[in-house]
């Protein structure tokens, strides 16, 4: 994943931390205190199509197809998450029970161009 | 976008980026927990009980797959003097169809315990025409004061439709000298931070669970 400088126009992961205190939810979410609400945004020009920031081979396959066919395909490539991880939450449910659960695919770890 | 402009996609007032992010975070968390709105906690458990529960749930051991670990504090009804014939009621918020694969009842025995305590735990079934059925779940013997984790057969434990689970305690002293003074003694602690609680590991029965089991 290209490192994300604030002014980077290209597809990359934008990191944002959300504190549950700021949501006013610290009375029922016991742990953790907050989480990374990262998201993917930025341009995916043709030469970056298929660059998932991890598996370059997929990128080179797409790139060769682009070269073999026309260099300016009609479709566009989008900036999407390519790796995500679960978030473990400890919270009080409406009956006052303490519940610990893993919320799958909650935190975006890597972004790439479709 | 500055205040006063209109959100291009939903037509509502454009939110500053931070406010938008907080809204997205709320939606993402509620969706991830399969909740439609945040829980309104009317009777939060005492802080000391919470601290113990967090310690219980802390060490690694995350519920496997789409599982949950639940600590449910008991509401106690029945005889006020001897908690040995108390009814423990638990209110679980379990998914429609779930598999319970681990259950332990935590009880606190006071330091003044005069001898070995013999305990039987019954589950009371839902109310029927001919009254409630009750099933013997487990028998335990406790000889030391402090916390005791009594394992219950997870296959036998089933909450009612409403999520209510009732356990009836039946205990007595083995050497029976508690009636020396003619009064039953407090053989179990049920004060706020020593309130009995259930520790459960639950897995929601997703569509694929059956296939996995068959495989």
Structure explained in plain terms:
The complex is a heterodimer of chains A (114) and B (215). Chain A has 114 residues and is mainly beta. In chain A, 15% of the residues lie in helices and 39% in strands. Chain A has two helices and seven strands; from the N terminus they run ββαβββαββ. In chain A, the strands form three sheets. Chain A has a three-stranded antiparallel β-sheet, with no helix packed on it. In chain A, strands 1-5 form a two-stranded antiparallel sheet. In chain A, a hairpin with a 5-residue loop joins β6 (79-92) and β7 (98-113). The two termini of chain A are 13 Å apart. Chain B is an alpha+beta fold and 215 residues long. In chain B, 15% of the residues lie in helices and 35% in strands. In chain B, the strands form two sheets. A five-stranded antiparallel β-sheet of chain B has the order 2-3-8-5-6, with no helix packed on it. In chain B, strands 1-9-4-7 form a four-stranded antiparallel β-sheet, with no helix packed on it. Chain B starts with 16 loop residues before the first helix and ends with a helix. β7 (98-113) of chain A pairs antiparallel with β1 (67-73) of chain B.
């Amino acid at each position: 994943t290209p490192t994300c400088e604030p002014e980077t126009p290209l597809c990359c992961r934008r990191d944002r931390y959300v504190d549950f205190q700021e949501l006013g939810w610290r009375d029922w979410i016991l742990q953790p205190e907050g989480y990374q609400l990262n998201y993917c945004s930025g341009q995916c020009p043709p030469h970056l199509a298929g660059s998932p920031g991890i598996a370059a081979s997929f990128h080179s396959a797409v790139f060769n197809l682009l070269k073999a066919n026309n260099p300016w395909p009609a479709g566009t490539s989008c900036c999407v998450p390519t790796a995500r991880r679960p978030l473990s939450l400890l919270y009080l449910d409406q009956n006052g029970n303490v519940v610990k659960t893993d919320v799958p695919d909650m935190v975006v770890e890597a972004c790439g161009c479709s | 976008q500055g205040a006063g402009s209109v959100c291009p996609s939903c037509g509502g007032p454009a939110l500053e980026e931070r406010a938008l992010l907080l809204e997205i975070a709320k939606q993402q968390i509620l969706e991830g927990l399969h909740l439609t709105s945040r829980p309104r906690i009317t009777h939060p458990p005492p802080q000391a009980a919470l601290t113990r529960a967090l310690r219980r749930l802390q060490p690694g051991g995350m519920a496997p797959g789409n599982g949950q670990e639940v600590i449910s504090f008991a509401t106690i009804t029945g005889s006020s003097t001897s908690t040995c014939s108390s009814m423990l009621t638990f209110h679980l918020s379990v998914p429609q169809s779930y598999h319970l694969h681990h259950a332990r009842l935590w009880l606190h025995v006071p330091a003044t315990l005069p001898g070995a305590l013999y305990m039987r735990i019954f589950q009371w079934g839902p109310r029927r025409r001919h009254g409630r059925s009750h099933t013997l779940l487990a028998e335990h013997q406790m000889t030391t004061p402090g916390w005791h984790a009594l394992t219950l057969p997870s296959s036998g434990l089933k909450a009612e439709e409403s999520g209510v689970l009732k356990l009836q305690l039946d205990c007595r002293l083995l050497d029976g000298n508690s009636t020396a003074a003619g009064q039953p003694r407090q053989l179990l602690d049920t004060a706020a931070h020593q309130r009995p609680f259930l520790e459960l590991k639950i897995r929601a029965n997703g569509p694929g669970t059956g296939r996995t089991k068959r495989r």
